[in-house]
Amino acid sequence: MSEPVALKLTAKDFKSDQEVRWCPGCGDYAILAAVQQFMPELNIPRENTVFVSGIGCSSRFPYYMNTYGMHSIHGRAPAIATGLSVSRPDLSVWVVTGDGDALSIGGNHLIHALRRNVNLKILLFNNRIYGLTKGQYSPTSEVGKITKSTPVGSADAPFNPLSLALGAEATFVGRTIDSDRKHLQSVLRAAAEHSGSAFVEIYQNCNIFNDGAFEQLKEPGTRDDYLIRLEHGQPITFGKDGQFCVVHPPGGFGLEVRETASTPAEEIVVHDATVDDPAYAFALSRLPGFDLRNTPIGVFRSVRRPSYDSVVQGQLADARATVTESPEQQLAGLLGSGDTWTIVG
Amino acid sequence: MSKQIRQLERVVIRFAGDSGDGMQLTGDRFTSETAQLGNDISTLPNFPAEIRAPAGTLPGVSSFQVHFADYDILTPGDAPNVLVAMNPAALKANLADLPRGADIIVNTDEFTRRNLAKVGYASSPLDDDTLAGYAVHPVALTSMTIGALTELDVSKKDAERAKNMFALGLLSWMYSRPYESTLRFLERKFAKRPELVAANVAAFKAGWNFGETTEDFAVRYEVKPAKMPPGTYRNITGNAALSLGIVAAGVRSGLPVFLGAYPITPASDILHELSKHKRFGVTTMQAEDEIAAIGAALGASYGGALGVTTTSGPGVALKGETISLAVALELPLVIVDVQRAGPSTGMPTKTEQADLNMALFGRHGEAPVAVIAPKSPSDCFHAALEAARIALTYRTPVILLSDNYVANGSEPWLLPEVDSLPDLRVEFATAPNSEDGTTFLPYLRDPQTLARPWAVPGTPGLEHRIGGLEKADKTGDISYDPANHDYMVRTRAARIETIPVPDVEVEDPDGDARVLVLGWGSTYGPIGAACRALRQRGLPVAQAHLRHLAPMPANLGAVLRSYDRVVIPEMNLGQLAHVIRGRYLVDAIGYNQVRGLPFTAAELETMLEEVLKNV
């Protein structure tokens, strides 16, 4: 194989001619800009990149990318993208979805795409609210959320998207934040390099209906003490001065946060995204509460498993390996298979 | 003792037994032997939804009816001339369908007090006058089968299970069927267990020899080959033919086929069949639900495959939103609905034609699609090709309305030459199409077909976005412009309405009929048989059959208006009649039946005779 030609694409090449119509101040702008700036890095021709979305604010995303794109129907993007990806392994297929689209109406498709390990890069913009329908609580809203549809507070418990994805056998799970472009692009990079489903939750601010939902993770005064920046192969410590760390207490199932100063260095968990047992990444996903303290970001899990696409393509290739006849000859043989009889005129 | 041989023109046999008795297999084999002989054939299986209902009960009865004749026939027959009843339940469940004088072959071994009680027989119908007027042949099928296999190394259970082959052997003898293909079949089926090959072959031969030696069967019958057009034939069910039609559409279009499907009776067999044809580039995906199944198919179509999804009525209801999306995206998609009795779960193994309204109108917004219905099992092959042709040429979803009756029924199929099948090759867009040649307009239409260009991802320079939001004419950009929406709605309607479909043909041999019977889908056979019977009695009646339900043939209005009376028999409460009345202002009469069973030719004949009297 020859060396891939450098396409020399720029962010501008990925901007479509459509006027971007999110609310001013929406976190989606930052994500769009970050993705457009990141795409040239992949050196994939624009025509081989497809963005498929469902319904919701985030799902307008494909209109603004100068690639192939489909704005489909509510919740179904993973299913539609699965058909495209499986039948066109030459394409780089991205799914853009939101917390309502992916976890409520489309929950079934999301978990099945993940367990199949379809070669999709799934970006879930989580703002913990329904924006396009003007402010109802979502499946990631905190219990007791007061919204138009829950005037005395929501009664149902939310999903933890990463826990859900891990339970659905996801091979790649990561989290990042709309406002941290550098980090966002680093997670996208890892996701793009992953073969199979890559699930990325992006905390995204809806400044109209749920403003400041992730403020503590963004404010310079709090973010360092709240955020756990996962680095593969590094001990998990965080806080402005690295004063906190993550340990696996003996006898327990999960992970806990301790003071670094009083913890022997060898007890601090060294982050390894390639651990096969999803229990580790699951424990990481359970660290934060709804006050956002101890929120890990980065790549939680990245393990190898054959993608659904490659298995399906492999079966097709095996079936065709021994075929020597033309399709028409094969068809004539198939039509005339089984018990036949001939009537002579 | 040499037996008398009597010639018959036609025979209808029904094999009935417990769902574990292998009646479908027995019927299939008898059909295959009959096909080898060159008779025309039509078959109808009838089985419970339960995989194994409690043994010996009425809900557990499974049957297979085969009609064969020395002339071309159109239906599996209204009433059996012969019933093979493997137990009391099979007798009780089927007796009402038998005309007086019919032959009944009963497995007396199963007529125990316990089995009789299970179906509410106080005394054995073999001993009282329940069966007076029938020619009853009591045969100790089970014990004779076991007796015939004593020398063989098989368990008693396996020996007993071979009793269906004893029955098949007996019937094969009675109707002088060639049995070589059955022996070959048994060798293939039990290739890994030679002792079962021996047992089943021995049981078959025992049944055959029993017929030859017992005095109870004094007559042997022959049915001469039918005069059929020359060529090579095979017997085929509707679901198998439909599957092959989809494979053929892939070959003739040169496109990979992608089937997204979720298991559902009675459509699952299409998924099973297509999953075997990977060497043709057919991908099958068993999706997580009906919605994902059509979603994946649509995604594949977007990528340049022939996307297909197969289901039954409840599945179509779930797919509605995605069909609307496909209407808006203007991409090819074939949706197969093998109709079953509804509403809701209804009667999943019984037939009905009650999804026509859903196919024509069952979506939000103005969302027209093309609709095609096969008229017989073998027609499913051609209907599938036609559905693919329309989908690919006009970039539209097409609903193929099969039903349980054609899907599971079978008939001889004259194999087509591959070269004679329609050429379905398509042209993908490869270059900008604006007047100045600089930009790509994804909704700039072909003036002839009104189809938009199919620009698949991977094509440089044609990057574009499509979606469910209303699109501006030509550019495909999001548009809320009132005039544009009105134009797009009308254009999508015109795109379907102007698809050229063949004129409807009228069968009226003498040209003097004043009553027209209009049917669609699987009623073709019974309507045709009823019309023939009436004509043979000197009563003129015309038959027309709709294969294309949307758009309808251009000449249909004129045809309907040229008769004094139009009668529309349907296995629903008048869905086509409603459309015809609304569209053509013709005072059509409906004849409707929703019993989960196909029409009998006799009931249609009686009904039409009444209509003829009053014209």
From TrEMBL, chain A:
Superkingdom of source: Bacteria
Domain Thiamine pyrophosphate enzyme TPP-binding: 55-202
Record SUPFAM superfamilies: Thiamin diphosphate-binding fold (THDP-binding) (SSF52518)
A GO term, aspect molecular function: thiamine pyrophosphate binding
Keyword Oxidoreductase in record: yes
Gene3D superfamilies recorded: 3.40.50.970
Pfam family, one: TPP_enzyme_C
A GO biological process held by the record: cellular respiration
UniProtKB keywords: Oxidoreductase
UniProt keyword annotation of Mitochondrion present: no
Protein name: 2-oxoglutarate ferredoxin oxidoreductase subunit beta
Organism: Micromonospora sediminimaris
Lineage, broadest ranks: Bacteria, Bacillati, Actinomycetota, Actinomycetes, Micromonosporales
Automatic annotation (TrEMBL), chain B:
GO biological process: response to oxidative stress
Positions of the Pyruvate/ketoisovalerate oxidoreductase catalytic domain: 20-207
Keyword set includes Transferase: no
Domain Pyruvate flavodoxin/ferredoxin oxidoreductase pyrimidine binding: start-end pairs: 255-474
SUPFAM superfamilies (alphabetical): Pyruvate-ferredoxin oxidoreductase, PFOR, domain III, Thiamin diphosphate-binding fold (THDP-binding), TK C-terminal domain-like
InterPro entries: 2-oxoacid/accept_OxRdtase_asu, Pyruvate:ferred/Flavod_OxRd, Pyrv/ketoisovalerate_OxRed_cat, Pyrv_Fd/Flavodoxin_OxRdtase_N, Pyrv_flavodox_OxRed_cen, THDP-binding, Transketo_C/PFOR_II
Record's keyword terms, sorted: Oxidoreductase
GO molecular function: magnesium ion binding; oxidoreductase activity, acting on the aldehyde or oxo group of donors
Keyword flag Cell cycle: no
NCBIfam families linked to this entry: OAFO_sf (TIGR03710)
Protein name: Oxidoreductase
